[in-house]
Structure formats: C-alpha cells, structure tokens
Amino acid sequence: MKTLVPMTVLMIVVLLVPPAVAGGNTAPVKRQVYENAIDDEIAQSRQMASLLSSRSANLRQKGHREASKAIFLEMHRKELVDDMLAKKLEPKTYKVERFLNDRFRCNCYATWAANTD
C-alpha cells in the first residue's frame, strides 16, 4: 500500500510530462517542412515548364502556367510560409500542395482581372 501511491504519482508524471515537452515549439519544424514543400513545387514546376517548347498549344499553355507558378512561389516564399504557419496548416504534403495551388490560382485570377480592365 505504501508503494501504491508513489507508483501512481510516478505513472501520472511519466504519462503527462512527455506530451507537454514534445508539444513545445514546433514552428521551426513546420517552417522547414513548408519550405521543403515549396522547393519541391518549384522544382516540379520548372520541370513542367519545359513544355513551353512543345508543338501542342495546350502543352505550351501548361508550360507557361508552370513557369509562372515557379516564379510566383519563388517571389512569395516567405509570405506563403508565414500564412501556412498562421493558419496552422497540417504539414501534410497534400494539404500544403493544395494551399499553394489555391494561392497561385487566386493570384493568377487577380492578375488576369486587373489586366482585362
């Protein structure tokens, strides 16, 4: 009986302390994940930009869009990472890719709308 209380307290401490310590500052880790994801997207977009020399008009359009996306990601890298951190976006590949694509589409539409007026 005398060892039951200290053992119970020890078990509570062992179970509660590690999550509290591990749940500390994860922002630098997430920042690195987001930056790596942006680097991957830039690399993929640059590779797809090679379609600019295609004979197909549709593929040339895709190449132009991918080249524009690479430039957008390079220019807005810090802002995009800060926005992902502010929105507490889970550092999952598909969520980061969707966020980047949505931001790029919004920017392209705004640019297109501004140029048509």
Describe the structure.
This protein has about 120 residues and is mainly alpha-helical. It has 5 helices and no strands. Helix 2 crosses helix 4. The protein is globular and about 50 Å long.
Shape: globular
Can you count the beta strands?
A: 0
Determine the mean pLDDT. 82
Number of helices: 5
Our measurement of the CA-to-CA distance between the termini, rounded to an integer number of angstroms, reads 82 Å
The topology string of helices and strands comes to HHHHH
Notable characteristics:
mainly alpha, about 120 residues, globular, 5 helices
In short:
The protein is mainly α and 117 residues long. The protein is built from 5 helices and no strands. It has a domain at 27-89.
Topology:
Layout: H1 4-22, H2 27-48, H3 57-75, H4 77-86, H5 93-116
